[in-house]
Design brief:
By secondary structure, this protein is mainly beta. Helices cover 5% and strands 49% of the residues. The chain is built from one helix and ten strands. The strands form two sheets. Strands 1, 2, 3, 4, 7, 8, 9 and 10 form an eight-stranded antiparallel sheet that branches. A hairpin with a 2-residue loop joins strand 5 (73-77) and strand 6 (80-84). It is globular, with a radius of gyration of 19 Å.
């Protein structure tokens, strides 16, 4: 399950059914110092960090699409809603909580304190069920959703394991 919400608040909007195969990518790019002949690694420093969550939703929901694109205006119209796009350079921020239930009964929870959309949605109109590829990039956050300060080294995301993982 993926929960979305406004940046700075605990995400509570369930995007609905998701396809298996969500991917959490954590990257730490390094600067390496090598010396000698042959050159050997003597030191590394992290020069950038990133967190990316990719999930495939399966339900039509314009609010979710707005989060996944990072922009848009939702309006109520006779008989439904519309999502209107275009003309803004900013990317909205959101909060994410991904909950994965393991077959053995354990639960993996990924909290991304602040994120922005990957900015692209490709929806295939065909005979198969619709899929909505949601991609979110974690942003550096100073506080968690309760407003508590996050210490250095804990400002992108938190992974929690609950229960049995045997």
């Amino acid at each position: 399950m993926l929960y979305l919400g406004a940046a700075g608040a605990t995400p509570s909007s369930d995007i609905g059914a998701v396809k298996t195969g969500a991917v959490l990518t954590i990257t730490r790019d390094k600067l390496e110092v090598k010396q000698g002949s042959p050159a050997q690694l003597i030191q590394q420093w992290v020069i950038s960090e990133s967190v990316k969550l990719e999930v495939h939703g399966m339900e039509w929901n314009l609010e979710n699409l707005k989060y996944a694109i990072g922009a848009g205006i939702i309006k109520t119209v006779s008989g439904g809603k519309t999502l209107e796009l275009g003309g803004t350079m900013s990317i909205e921020e959101c909060a994410l909580e991904f909950v994965h239930q393991m077959p053995a009964g354990g639960t993996v929870i990924v909290d991304i304190w602040k994120a922005q959309a990957g900015g692209e949605i490709a929806i295939t109109f065909g005979d198969d069920p619709h899929e909505f590829p949601y991609v979110f990039m974690g942003l550096n956050a100073a506080t968690d959703w309760a407003g508590n300060p996050l210490e250095s080294g804990a400002q992108l995301c938190k992974i929690t394991l609950l229960g049995d993982f045997t």
